[in-house]
Amino acid sequence: MKITAAVSVGPNTDFALEEVTLESPRDHEVLVEITGVGLCHTDIAARDGVYGLPYPLVLGHEGSGVVIEVGANVSKVGPGDHVALSFNSCGKCTSCTKGSPAYCLEFVAYNYIGSRPDGSNPLGGFGDAELHGHFFGQSSLATHAMASERNVVKIDKSIPLELVGPLGCGIQTGAGAIMRSMSAPEGSSLLVLGAGPVGLAAVLGAVVQKCSTIIVSEPHAGRRALALELGATHALDPADGPLPEQVRGIIAGGADFAFDTTGNVAVIKAAIESMAVNGMLGLVGVPKDFSVELPINIVATMQAGLTIKGIVEGDSDPDVFIPELLDLYKAGRFAFDKMITTFPLSKINDAVTAQHNGEVTKVVLLNN
Ligand SMILES: [Zn+2]
Ligand SMILES: [Zn+2]
Question: Given pLDDT bands bounded at 50, 70 and 90, which one contains residue 289?
C-alpha cells in the first residue's frame, strides 16, 4: 500500500514528507493506521546520527492508532482495535520471559538497527534507495506503521487515542522509573533533574506513589511552572545556586531518590551530593557521546550506602503498565495530557523547532 512518511535523509536535516510503500503484515505483524505519534528526543538523536542508523530512514516510536490488518498468527488484536505502540522485544530471552522486556537481550536488534531483526524492511518505494525503518518495531512518523503483536497494547475506546502514543516510551519511562524501577514509597522524597516530558512523567509517577517532597531542577521557567502544576512541591532554577545547597535547604538530610533525565555528568554529580543516606539514583538521560563515564568517589558512595540504578523504559512491561497508567488517567490521577501540544504531521519540522526551543513540552503529531 501507499503511505506518507516523514523520511530522515541525513543528520541535522529536516524530515521530508514523502509518499512511500508499506508491505502487508507478516505472520506476527500488525498494520496500524497512525492517529497520533509523539516526538521523542530519541527520534531527533536518531535522525542526527547518534545511533548510527542508515539513511534514508523512517523514525517514530510513540505511535497510536487503529489496527487495519493483522498477520496470520496474531490473536492479541484485530482490525478496528485501538492500540498504543511501544518498544519491541523478542519474547524468548531470559529478560522477556521474566516480564522485563525493557532489558530484552535482543533489544538493539528489535528496535535500533533500521530493519527487522532479519535485516528486511516492510518499507519501500523511495526511489532506488533501500528505505530503512522498523524503529522500535514501528517507524510511526507516518500515516501507517508495521508493528508486531508483542509491541501493540489494546486501548479502551473511551480514551483519546491520538494522545496515548507517548505512554509507549517517554511517559512510561518517567513514571515507571519512580513507580517500578525505584518503587519510591509513600512519604519519600524525590529530586528530578530536568523537566522535559520524561522528568514531568516522573513527577506524575511520584504523585501516584504519594512521595511527600518532589523537587524538580530545571532551567526553563515554563517547565518549572508546569512541574508545579503537575504536582512537584518545589521547582528549582539551577542558576540560583549549587544544587546540593538548594536541595538541602528544603530537606536537610537530602533526597531519598534522585532521577536524572539529563545525561550530564556535572548535573549527576550535583545530584549525588544532594542525596540522603541510603538514597537511590536512577539514570535515564542519554549523553550525546555514548563513551561518557561517571566519576564516582568509591568511599563516599559506600559511606552513604548509595544505589545507582540504570533504567530502560521505566522497567515497563507495556501490556501491564500502559493500562495501569490509563486507569490512573481515567481516575484523574495521571494528567499526562497536560504536557502535550499537537501539530499536524505535515508540520513536523516546525514541531521539532518548537520542542527544541522549549516553546512546547511534548509534541504529538496528528494524522487528520
Ligand atoms: Zn527478549
Ligand atoms: Zn522515546
Answer: confident
Which is nearest to 33 in space by CA: 62, 11, 3?
3
Would residue 306 be called left, alpha or beta, if left means φ above 0 and alpha means ψ between -120 and 50 degrees?
A: beta
Cα of 310 to ligand 1 centre, how many Å?
Answer: 18
Distance from the alpha carbon of residue 84 to the mean position of ligand 2, in angstroms: 13
Ligand 1 ion: nearby residues, β-carbon < 5 Å: 89-90, 93, 96, 104
What is residue 64's predicted lDDT score, i.e. its pLDDT?
A: 98
* Mean pLDDT calculated for residue range 60-77: 98
Q: Please, is 218 exposed, middle or buried when counting C-beta atoms within 10 Å of its C-beta (0-12, 13-18, 19+)?
A: buried
Distance 330 CA to ligand 2 centre (A): 23
Q: Which CATH number does the domain 2-168+337-366 belong to among 3.40.630.30, 3.90.180.10, 3.30.420.340, 3.40.640.10?
A: 3.90.180.10
Residues with CB under 5 A from ligand 2 (ion): 40, 42, 169
- Do residues 325 and 167 lie in contact, with contact meaning Cβ atoms separated by under 8 Å? yes
Edge-to-edge strands of the sheet including 189-193? 234-236, 213-217, 189-193, 255-260, 275-283, 307-310
**How sure is the predictor about 223, in pLDDT bands with cuts at 50, 70 and 90?**
very high
Q: Say how far apart CA 135 and CA 114 lie, in whole Å.
A: 6
Distance 118 CA to ligand 2 centre (A): 23
> 95: CA distance to ligand 1 center in Å?
6
Q: Whose grid coordinates read 500500500?
A: 1
Nearest ligand to the C-alpha of residue 96?
1
What are 292-300's contacts with CB under 8 Å, separation 24+?
292/263, 292/265, 294/265, 294/268, 294/269, 295/265, 295/269, 296/272
Nearest ligand atom owner, CA of 284: 2
Domain boundaries, the chain: 2-168+337-366, 171-312
Confidence at residue 192, expressed as pLDDT on a 0 to 100 scale: 98
32 Cα–ligand 2 center, Å: 19
